[in-house]
Structure to design on (254 residues):
């Protein structure tokens, strides 16, 4: 027997293409060609018509199966095709569920935008936001913190000083998704909250002045996740900031 050994990757036990070609040449030159997985695989890959020329092999080849003992090559191929088809069907079903959910959300946001545009005061605007959050979106609570003094009184407005929360959570980002510390929960919601929250920074689009933030709470700890898409929220925050600033300005001049 030859003492020629393939230079295999020690971690994976697989030869790269250069080593494989070199090894084949060396074994041919030595007059011996040991049958190894790489050679069989390379040959079948280079000769896809092999089983067309040797159809009797298809019925004779038997492969081990964890559930059915041994099966033919054709049966194994059929099994793999069924598994792939099932995986694709599940993926399509999941995509349809996500698409339907996104369509529902888009419809809710579109209706909300029209309702917000019809509001004639900051009080109406906050009522609309609270109702949409708790009733239409079935979330636990909505709070709004403004960094400017206002005579407006509304159940959604936070009277505590949340400048530290804004600096800690929204200094470099327009959104914060996840959990809040208990002191932050107390400042915003006036009580400890379970689940997850999203903080949405409100900026005046014209001056980039920070108006404050919206805090929305969900009882589901996984609902607001940092991986969430912010496309709809981006449109939402711009519209709310613009309308809220307009109503607050009108209130001051009245």
């Amino acid at each position: 027997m030859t003492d020629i050994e393939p230079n295999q990757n020690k971690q994976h036990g697989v030869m790269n293409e250069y080593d494989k070609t070199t090894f084949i040449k060396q074994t041919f030159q030595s007059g011996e060609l040991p049958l190894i997985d790489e050679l069989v695989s390379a040959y079948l890959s280079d000769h896809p018509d092999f089983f067309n020329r040797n159809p009797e092999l298809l019925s004779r080849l038997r492969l081990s199966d964890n559930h059915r003992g041994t099966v033919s090559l054709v049966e194994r191929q059929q099994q793999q095709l069924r598994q792939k088809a099932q995986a694709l069907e599940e993926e399509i079903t999941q995509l349809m569920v996500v698409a339907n959910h996104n369509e529902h959300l888009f419809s809710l946001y579109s209706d909300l935008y029209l309702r917000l545009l019809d509001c004639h005061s900051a009080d109406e605007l906050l009522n609309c936001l609270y109702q949409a959050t708790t009733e239409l979106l079935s979330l636990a609570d909505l709070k709004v913190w403004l960094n400017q003094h206002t005579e407006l009184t509304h159940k959604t407005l936070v009277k505590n000083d949340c400048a530290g929360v804004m600096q800690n959570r929204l200094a470099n980002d327009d959104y914060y998704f996840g959990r809040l510390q208990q002191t932050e929960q107390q400042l915003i919601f006036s009580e400890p909250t379970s689940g997850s929250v999203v903080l949405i920074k409100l900026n005046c689009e014209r001056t980039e002045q920070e108006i404050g933030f919206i805090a929305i709470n969900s009882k589901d700890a996984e609902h607001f996740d940092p991986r969430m898409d912010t496309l709809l929220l981006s449109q939402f925050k711009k519209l709310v900031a613009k309308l809220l600033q307009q109503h607050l300005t009108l209130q001051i001049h009245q």
Summary: The first strand starts at residue 62 and ends at 65. Residues 1-13 have pLDDT under 50 and may be disordered. Strands lie at 62-65, 69-72, 141-146, 175-178, 196-203, 210-218.
